[in-house]
């Protein structure tokens, strides 16, 4: 990219099973207040402050029409620009970058929020994603769709339940170094295998837990970024891609849209060999098998070898290509927010501010977000210091 965009500040709430003490506006205010304090920026269109806001939320999850309305004032959108992305937070970051690169904005605030604890069942929410005439009445939701994908993938390549369980154990153990993850604890493979079956072959601990939370970051074009901070994190590459809407039109053991999104991001960032050139990856895996499948789609290993990559130890914090040193989505990161949280965690790694979860010698980090059933939409961003 001739013009560069940088992340100059970020903030996250703690990720909890339920935040009854905070309304959505209060969660958003918590993180917006932090990023403004970090930068000293005001909401302004005179070239001295934040001149645009992008929010990521969803009407159904928030149980209201136009879910960004309650947070408009909090993100400085009173009589000013604000746009909503009704998808994953990484896609909101992608969209914000596009706005800056287009020349329309200099400094953009990006915020994502979700309270998954509000509905009686998130399965009822995700059921609404599916076609109302042919699929919705069958009871399909993200969990049952993921179970179909997990079975297709595991049967095709011989992925074992134990390999999936090791993904979960790694995530929970990594998260002990992340102060924002309140579920972090030492977890054994056997404990994952013994957890209740919720949609064969997915067990309770194979699925990400119901979580409430919000996060925010500020993006700026190069000239502004260098004035705001002496430690900008540059977005060197980005890509996104959709797959087919109907699950029957896709090979569920594959992830073509992720491969396309990654190839776009790698090409933009000048990456030839992802396995060798990426130092750490924050990957949005809502179910344990997805970390294995997504690492294949990202080019860290050949198709069908995600389990072997895990078994080799390469994805540990001390490995060749550490995946989710923060713990990732499996330990608690709500839908909508998950991808932006991955961007923030990747930025933390680039700055070397990860504490006990810090990977050594990080120069290039990958952040990934996904939304839709079985990874319909994927967004990939490459970050560098």
Question: What this model shows, in words?
Answer:
By secondary structure, the protein is an alpha/beta fold. It has a nine-stranded mixed beta sheet with strand order 3-2-4-7-1-8-11-10-9. It has a two-stranded antiparallel ribbon with strand order 5-6. It is built from 13 helices and eleven strands. The model has no long low-confidence stretch (mean pLDDT 96). It has a domain at 5-119 and 211-228: 3-Layer(aba) Sandwich (Peroxisomal Thiolase, Chain A, domain 1), CATH 3.40.47. Helices cover 34% and strands 18% of the residues. The longest helix is centred in the N-terminal third of the chain and has 16 residues, at 24-39. The protein has helices at 24-39, 59-62, 89-101, 122-127, 142-157, 161-174, 189-194, 222-228, 256-269, 274-277, 288-297, 306-311, 338-351, and strands at residues 5-12, 52-56, 83-85, 107-115, 197-199, 202-203, 212-221, 233-242, 280-282, 364-371, 377-384. The two termini are 15 Å apart. Strand 10 (364-371) and strand 11 (377-384) form a beta hairpin.
